[in-house]
Amino acid sequence: MKRTGILFFPAFDWSLGNSHPEREERLLYTQEQLFEEGILDLPQMKQFTPRVASLADVAQAQALFPTPSLYPETLDPHLIAAGSAILLGEARIRGEISNGFVLVRPPGHHSGATVWGNRGFCTINNEAILINQLRARYGIKKIAIVDTDVHHGDGTQDIFYHDPNILFISLHQDGRTLYPGSGFIDEQGGPNAWGQTLNIPLPPGTGDEGYHYVLETWVLPRLQAFKPELIINSAGQDNHFTDPLASMNLTASGYGRITELLQPDLAVLEGGYSIEGALPFVNLAILLALAGEDYHHVREPQKIGRSSLPLATLKPYVETLKKQTQMVKPDFTIHNVKFFPPGEWVYIPRSVYYDTEGFQETRQDFVRKCNHCAGTVYIESQRSHAKTKSVLVRIPFEACPQCEQAGYDLWEYVQQHHQEIHSGLLQNQLHNQHQVWQRKKD
């Protein structure tokens, strides 16, 4: 029998405020709906108990600045969400389940390679932590992430932007009309992973037909060409026509069809803020589709009240977008810093706004061009108005000897010579190790 795993962690003790979209009761109605429909009594359903991820698990995907030890206890629910994703991922790898749904909050896909706090309701990235743990522990190499949240998965993209073994696809409402204002067709990956990031910005009003058309004609062929060992769906539900934060027109049944088309190994809940009108029904449809049951009868009580973009209008837009995506050519700036090890280093500056707390992060990203691996990554990061910087040095999975040595050399140099660097993380993915360092005060 096909087994579908479900892990439910509603984090009732965590919220961003009583009137905030990301609040305690966000999954309360989903819980009631699943019990009422008897979905958990289906013979192919297997329930799992949440687990806490460690800071070491996080460190293989992200750098928490200034140091992890300074993070308060409010990080606990985020660690449980990430640990739950790891747990269900391991169950999938071991063959205990055929697929699964990680129904957890808080979400995570806006949390990137460096973390100074919460942004877009996210502090740590559940999918990225899950993926890097599966790669480190089980030797999984090729993984595809399909992010169907209405917002661009900018944090997930950031973490895997230089990794040729991760295919990241994001379908989202056009960033010119919605937070975080990114996810455009020219964002296609770093110098060693060009083409491994695919952004499909869709116009407001896109509904079931439009999403299914894009999946069938663009996303699925791309997945088939990549041949991933695992497919992870960042299953945001804020594309629903009742969601208060966006302008799309998906239905619960439309979500079921998305799941049926993608056939993900794991779906991991991201956004979705229509607590009563959408989430209970969308989650039900997704679970039914994962379990191989009929989801077409799932109907939300409210009817679509805003106009949908006709498929006849969307088709030429998508075809033009495809052509434009293919025409984009890589244009990277080589910037060899004095103390950098031998090789060509590509410079990619970034600025990240933390909307929850209202500050800016300024980053200087460098990646070593390499024909043999993902390349060493060096990131200097600084929170606005701070006098000191923090640094992330990443030695990638399957690093070649030159890139491995470059990582060690950079790590040693910044500790000895860069007085403005206050703290850092050496992310040694090759050996599943990490080192956290903080400069001692004089």
What distance separates the N and C termini? 64 Å
Radius of gyration: 21 Å
Integer average pLDDT:
94
Low-confidence stretches: none
Give the name of the CATH architecture of the largest domain: 3-Layer(aba) Sandwich
Specify the overall morphology.
globular
Number of domains: 2
Q: What proportion of the residues form beta strands (DSSP E)?
A: 15-25%
Q: Care to count the β-strands? A: 17
Tell me the CATH superfamily of the largest domain: Histone deacetylase domain
Structural class: alpha/beta
Keywords: Hydrolase
GO molecular function: histone deacetylase activity; hydrolase activity
Protein name: Histone deacetylase-like amidohydrolase
EC number: 3.5.1.-
Describe this structure in words.
With 442 residues, the protein is of the alpha/beta class. It has 2 domains: 4-327, Arginase, Chain A; 333-438. It has helices spanning 28-37, 55-59, 76-93, 126-138, 154-160, 208-226, 252-262, 279-290, 311-327, 401-417, and strands at residues 4-9, 45-48, 63-64, 99-104, 114-115, 143-147, 166-173, 197-202, 230-235, 266-269, 333-334, 345-354, 359-368, 377-383, 389-395, 421-428, 433-438. The strands form 3 sheets. An 8-stranded parallel beta sheet has the order 2-1-4-10-9-6-7-8, sandwiched between helices. The chain is globular.
